[in-house]
Amino acid sequence: MKISELKKGQKVTVRCKHKTLLVDMEAHVAGVRSEVVLLELIRHDGQVVDFSSPHVQIITIYEDGLDMPKAWTNCRIQRRTVDGRQYHALAAPKTSVKVNRRKVSRIILNKSGRLKLSNQSEIVEIMIHDLCVNGIGFECPVKIEEQDIRHLYIQFLDEDREDEEEIKVEARVVWKKELPEGGFFYGCRLVNAEENLGYYVAGKMREERS
């Protein structure tokens, strides 16, 4: 996918990296001129961002909820005035690549769990494939129209552990894939979790290494 294929109104994440500093900023597409994407002016801490430094690496990430997120690396952003309005003009030298935004270690679970949608009362039985402190992947027999809901509420019980502590997380769909044998696989970003999640993931990782 070329960056010029982005459409007006779509939202992207602009990730800026400089040495150990990393900042993610939300941006909205205002239009496309030739191979350049015009973004509404990006602000951080109330100030319009200056992307002119050659020492800053810029990655642009787009999530459409249908597939894994797409990312463009080595992007360049400059201020540009078009028809009397100022924009951030975004250009990328290459087409996008699919990326997995979970950069931290994950554990493979393959355990059954329960899913509740924020706008529905019924509980759906799911199979949780993997989990980390900021994301979860699971199989579900029903199609989730993520644009119609705010959050997913997921919980499961690990019967292999002596304390049998229930894990509860709140997630938002990032991408989904239809499975050939039926059902769907969802990759989600965690937006909230109880304190015991971190201890649980760390404990499972220690078990895997031992």
Give a description of the structure.
The protein has one helix and 16 strands. By secondary structure, it is mainly β. Strand 8 (76-82) and strand 9 form a beta hairpin. The protein has an eight-stranded antiparallel sheet with strand order 8-9-3-2-1-6-7-10, with no helix packed on it. A six-stranded antiparallel β-barrel has the order 11-12-13-16-15-14. Strands 4-5 form a two-stranded antiparallel ribbon. It is elongated. The termini are far apart. It has one helix spanning 196-209, and strands spanning 11-18, 21-33, 36-39, 43-44, 47-48, 57-62, 70-72, 76-82, 85-91, 97-98, 107-117, 123-132, 135-140, 152-157, 166-178, 184-193. Helices cover 7% and strands 52% of the residues.
What descriptors fit this protein?
elongated; mainly beta; 210 residues; six-stranded antiparallel barrel; 7% helix; eight-stranded antiparallel beta sheet; 52% strand
